[in-house]
Design goal:
The chain has 346 residues and is α/β, with parallel strands linked by helices. The chain has helices at 44-52, 101-104, 147-150, 158-165, 186-196, 208-216, 229-236, 252-261, 299-311, 326-335; strands at residues 2-6, 17-21, 32-41, 60-61, 65-73, 88-91, 130-133, 139-141, 176-180, 200-205, 221-224, 242-247, 262-270, 290-293, 318-322, 341-345. The chain starts with a strand and ends with a strand.
Length: 346
């Protein structure tokens, strides 16, 4: 079968990946084989490419945002209602040990034993015709959602959904939320904020096209990032700042902006893995402002998100591409021309 793999061996990021032929996996005891219907393209993959440029011992198929149809069960794996042969499913991508306290709570994304494990992260992912899933607990029925439209929800949707959900106590009537970044995750964050709370949403991005999408999906205010961005946000919020700031990017400049506009008693959540840092001391933040990062969400939250998507309250703006175009899609991501989310379809 065809697979888009990370192979390393070059300082040119696009030369660290290639489309190649690999053997179709066979499900073992407890495992499930999923025929892929869509695999989301994520900027986190670029981080993997950067790592591979320095050290990578063997090829690995990319793709941690996956959905498709159940193709086969391994020995001893039994179908359950909604999870039968041919059923359309989303694949939860944070694979934990299954036994620790966090895993037993359904939050395998915070498993201390298997940090960063999952398809396209530590084992072969879904940018291929088939994906081997280690347990049925990672599969969620899609209902009337198609795999190609649902695949990005498993990460690009789940990550901001979790960040918004845990911040709901701050999002009371009269509150303000700033979303820095209006791309694949940012335009979904705007929708979750509007669907789950009465907060006023301010979307910030350097790209006018991305801001147009943010406005279309519900942002109350849009600001082109520049020297006066913080001043404009302060004006909109009446001088007090935002009750919640979601930094979807995580760069030095976006973190600095976030810290400059969050309100006292507010919440600053770093969602993006941009590698930026933020200095901290007694005077660098408004009083009792909390700062946290998040990593994906729980399998239960993915179930909630899929249910929300089935109501039509949120929709992902994504373009589908054949698997053979994967390198071109990443090239567009690297040069900044990619709008919304991209999904590879074998």
């Amino acid at each position: 079968m065809k697979a888009f793999q990370l192979v390393g061996g070059s300082t040119n990021l696009l030369e660290t990946v290639t489309l190649t032929d690999v053997s179709q996996p066979e499900p073992g005891p407890g495992q499930v084989l999923v025929r892929i219907g869509g695999a989301g393209v994520c900027h986190s993959d670029v981080t993997l490419m950067e790592f591979a440029a320095n050290k990578r011992e063997k090829p690995m198929t990319l793709g941690h945002e996956n959905a498709g149809w159940i193709e086969a069960f391994g020995p001893g794996t039994l179908p359950t209602p909604g999870l039968e042969i041919g059923a359309p499913v989303a694949v939860y991508g944070a694979w934990g040990c299954g036994a620790c306290k966090n895993c037993r709570r359904g939050m395998e994304n915070y498993c201390p034993v298997s940090v960063g494990s999952g398809p396209g992260l530590s084992v072969d992912g879904g940018m291929a015709e088939y994906l081997l899933v280690p347990a049925t607990r990672y599969l969620l029925p899609l209902g009337d959602l198609t795999p190609a439209e649902a695949a990005p929800l498993s990460d690009a949707g789940l990550t901001p959904y979790h960040a918004v959900k845990v911040s709901l106590p701050w999002l009371v009537p009269g509150s303000y939320t700033v979303v820095i970044g209006a791309g694949g995750l940012g335009h979904l964050a705007v929708q979750f904020l509007k669907a789950l709370s009465p907060t006023t949403v301010i979307s910030v991005d350097k790209r006018e096209g991305a801001l147009s999408l943010a406005a279309k999906v519900g942002a109350d205010h849009t600001i082109v990032s520049g020297e006066k961005t913080a001043e404009e946000i302060r004006a909109i919020t009446g001088g007090r700042g935002a009750d919640l700031v979601l930094d979807i990017c995580g760069y030095d400049d976006t973190l600095a902006l976030a810290a400059s506009v969050v309100a006292s008693l507010g919440r600053l959540t770093v969602v993006g893995v941009g590698g930026g840092t933020l200095p901290f001391n007694f005077f660098s933040f408004p009083y009792e402002c909390s700062l946290q990062s998040t990593y994906w969400g729980s399998v239960t939250e993915l179930e909630e998100l899929l249910a929300l998507a089935r109501t039509g309250a949120v929709s992902i703006h994504a373009t589908q591409y054949p698997l053979e175009k994967a390198s071109d899609v990443y090239a567009s991501m690297l040069d900044g021309s990619l709008q919304g989310r991209a999904v590879l379809v074998p």
